[in-house]
């Protein structure tokens, strides 16, 4: 068997290659093309006359966040023009920054979960629409063009969608829009009118909002709506006006404002509406509360000093104080969100060894598993996520030959075949900007090369046409400017790096005795992890090096075969496949499972176990705005 054929079968049978990135899919069951109404008819569930339990709340005892002075967004007319703009200030009153400076009125600021953008409402076009402000370059982009006006944006926990309210006092719907592409608006009807101030729960499937309720004019209650069960629940169900709900970061409690005591005060309740408890009791108007990321503090606006100023207090209502007093109103405070959480899902290929394998998504805790594609007897393997998490690219021999396919990450729809060639196309890797896919292919001159193609299948390009040897296992640099790959152009397989367009010189990074495969470029640490197969034993081990090829070393020692390493989105952990629980004989690998290795503490976690052979872990990436 010649070396190129050996390369193909070695990569296939030993399951040792690379994968890519991601983000969560939208609520597909509710989304339609264009602005449309959902077909369900939600049933309003009243909690009954909810008992208001007036108790002294116990302050939260969790440790304080490392961010000792977290910033707060707010709106103010303190500028020279007297119109509303968005400002930022630290919780101790320092670091005042003006973020917008437009003749229009800006309102309803809302941090994105990754802290990289701010959604807000503005009447720049004559009627309020939702805009996005990029923290990196301060660029403002209009997201909606809703004929009835759009206000009160709130982000889904994964950042993929924004819910908002219509600027219509009779509105009886929540509206959803994709936070990256904008495009069509999905209308979610609810059986109450005057919907305003939606707030997306951290768990991702529930929205709280204020709406008209009761027989008295002007009365409002706080409701919750579950996007999965379509259940609409009146949480407060009290006389008076309840408004501006705000979820605690862990989703167990809600803040809200109410005038049930004669003036506006801040209350807190459990997520189910129980234990409604006042936090403020002042004759002034206390409104628009929000939580700190560690849930130990609450920010709100109050006119105790004649104009509305920002105030903070503990989550038990103690230690109330103004951040700073100004002659004009400072309103709508929104505290910096908690640090972005690491994506807790992996795409893998699983089946009875040898192939075929099916595509699965598993949680990093091992507690959840979702089948994405298992509809036929073909092999489906080597998955990689799109940067926005909505799709997965993979290799399959469904057509009799390995080609590259795309599928929705929730498994819906029919896989789209991206490449068609008599030679095999394998090991796809999605570019960080979401526009291209790199893969290895054996189609020209009988050797393997690195190719790239646009996600719509256009502009197919061979990046290594002048290499007479085998090039494979591509992985993109975090900035998308480079591609690291494996090649035997120097005799055995080593790791190389080249420009993402194939131009310029190629740099050899490793020169170890044995073969180096499956490089994966860290998103944060400036390092590359790869699999090294020793020349003497044929055993596969995980190595790591700086992205310039220096400081190459074995990451950990194992008696087993460890393969296909893949970085976590924060660069702190590595997922890999290993037969350490089911070792093979000599240099023949056994059944593989998926493991995690925490670089910070040197701890291993086995994710999968059982009879199936599980390979090619691809860690779902954190949200990014690069995808088109």
Give the helix/strand layout.
Elements: H1 3-13, E1 36-37, E2 44-46, E3 71-76, E4 85-90, E5 97-98, E6 106-111, E7 117-122, E8 129-134, E9 140-142, E10 150-155, E11 161-166, E12 173-178, E13 182-189, E14 196-200, E15 206-212, E16 220-226, E17 232-234, E18 242-247, E19 253-258, E20 265-270, E21 277-278, E22 286-291, E23 297-302, E24 309-314, E25 321-324, E26 330-335, E27 345-351, E28 358-363, E29 369-373, E30 380-385, E31 391-396, E32 403-408, E33 416-417, E34 425-430, E35 436-444, E36 447-454, E37 461-462, E38 471-476, E39 482-487, E40 494-499, E41 507-508, E42 514-521, E43 527-534, E44 540-546, E45 553-554, E46 562-567, E47 573-578, E48 593-598, E49 603-606, E50 613-619
Parallel strand pairs: 1-13, 2-17
Antiparallel strand pairs: 3-4, 3-26, 4-5, 6-7, 7-8, 8-9, 10-11, 11-12, 12-13, 14-15, 15-16, 16-17, 18-19, 19-20, 20-21, 22-23, 23-24, 24-25, 27-28, 27-50, 28-29, 30-31, 31-32, 32-33, 34-35, 35-36, 36-37, 38-39, 39-40, 40-41, 42-43, 43-44, 44-45, 46-47, 47-48, 48-49
**Classification by helices and strands:** mainly beta
Question: In CATH's first tier, which class of the domain at 3-22 and 346-619 applies?
Answer: Mainly Beta
Q: Measured on Cα atoms, how large is the radius of gyration? A: 27 Å
Helix content: under 10%
How many strands? 50
CATH architecture of the domain at 3-22 and 346-619: 6 Propeller
Low-confidence segments: 1-44, 46-68, 624-628
How are strands sequenced across the largest beta sheet? 1-13-12-11-10
Determine the number of helices (DSSP H or I, runs of at least 4 residues): 1
Name the overall outline. elongated
CATH topology of the domain at 3-22 and 346-619: Neuraminidase
């Amino acid at each position: 068997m010649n070396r190129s054929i050996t390369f193909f079968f070695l990569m296939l049978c030993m399951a040792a290659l690379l994968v890519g990135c991601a983000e969560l899919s939208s609520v597909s069951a509710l989304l339609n093309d264009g602005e449309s109404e959902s077909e369900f008819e939600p049933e309003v569930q009243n909690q009954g006359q909810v008992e208001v339990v007036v108790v002294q709340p116990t302050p939260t005892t969790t440790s304080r966040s490392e961010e000792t002075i977290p910033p707060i967004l707010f709106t103010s007319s303190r500028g020279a023009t007297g119109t509303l703009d968005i400002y930022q200030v630290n919780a101790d009153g320092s670091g005042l920054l003006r973020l917008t400076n437009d003749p229009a009125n800006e309102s309803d600021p809302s941090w994105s979960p990754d802290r990289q953008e701010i959604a807000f409402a503005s009447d720049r076009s004559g009627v309020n629409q939702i805009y996005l402000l990029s923290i990196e370059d301060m660029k403002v982009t209009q997201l909606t063009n809703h004929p009835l006006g759009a206000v009160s944006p709130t982000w889904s926990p994964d950042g993929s969608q924004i819910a908002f309210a219509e600027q219509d006092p009779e509105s009886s719907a929540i509206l959803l829009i994709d936070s990256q592409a904008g495009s069509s608006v999905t209308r979610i009807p609810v059986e109450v009118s005057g919907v305003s101030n939606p707030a997306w729960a951290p768990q991702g499937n529930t929205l709280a909002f204020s709406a008209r309720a009761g027989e008295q004019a002007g009365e409002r209650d706080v409701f919750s709506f579950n996007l999965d069960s379509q259940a609409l629940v009146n949480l407060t169900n009290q006389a008076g006006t309840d408004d501006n709900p705000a979820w605690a970061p862990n989703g167990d409690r809600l803040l809200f404002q109410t005038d049930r005591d004669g003036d506006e005060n801040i209350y807190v309740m459990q997520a189910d509406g129980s234990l409604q408890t006042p936090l403020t009791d002042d004759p002034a108007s206390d409104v628009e509360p929000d939580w700190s990321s560690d849930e130990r503090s609450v920010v709100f606006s109050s006119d105790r000093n004649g104009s509305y100023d920002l105030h903070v207090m503990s989550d038990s209502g103690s230690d109330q104080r103004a951040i700073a007093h100004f002659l004009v109103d400072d309103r709508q405070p929104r505290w910096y969100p908690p640090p972005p959480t690491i994506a807790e899902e992996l795409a893998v290929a699983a089946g009875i060894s040898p192939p075929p394998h099916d595509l699965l998504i598993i949680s990093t805790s091992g507690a959840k598993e979702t089948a994405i594609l298992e509809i036929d007897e073909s092999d489906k393997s080597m998955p990689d996520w799109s940067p926005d998490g909505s799709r997965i690219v993979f290799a399959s021999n469904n057509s009799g030959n390995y080609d590259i396919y795309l599928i929705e990450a929730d498994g819906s729809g029919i896989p789209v075949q991206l490449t068609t060639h008599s030679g095999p196309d394998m090991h796809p890797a999605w570019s960080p900007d979401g526009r291209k896919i790199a893969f290895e292919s054996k189609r020209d001159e009988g050797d393997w090369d690195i190719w790239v193609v646009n996600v719509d299948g256009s502009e197919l390009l061979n990046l290594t046409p002048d290499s007479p040897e085998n090039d494979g296992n591509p992985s993109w640099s975090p900035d998308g400017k480079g591609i690291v790959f494996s090649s035997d152009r120097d005799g055995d397989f080593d790791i190389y790096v080249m420009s993402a367009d194939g131009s310029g010189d190629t740099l050899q990074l490793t020169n170890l005795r044995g073969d180096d495969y499956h490089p994966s470029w860290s998103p944060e640490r400036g390092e590359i992890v790869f699999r090294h197969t020793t020349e003497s034993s044929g055993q596969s081990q995980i190595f790591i090096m700086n992205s310039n090829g220096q400081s190459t070393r074995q990451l950990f020692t194992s008696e087993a075969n460890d393969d296909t390493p893949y970085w976590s989105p924060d660069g702190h952990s590595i997922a890999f496949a290993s037969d350490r629980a089911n070792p093979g004989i000599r240099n023949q690998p056994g059944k593989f499972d998926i493991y995690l290795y925490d670089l910070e503490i040197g701890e291993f976690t086995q994710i999968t176990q059982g009879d199936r052979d599980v390979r090619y872990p691809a860690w779902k990436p954190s949200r990014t705005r690069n995808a088109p």
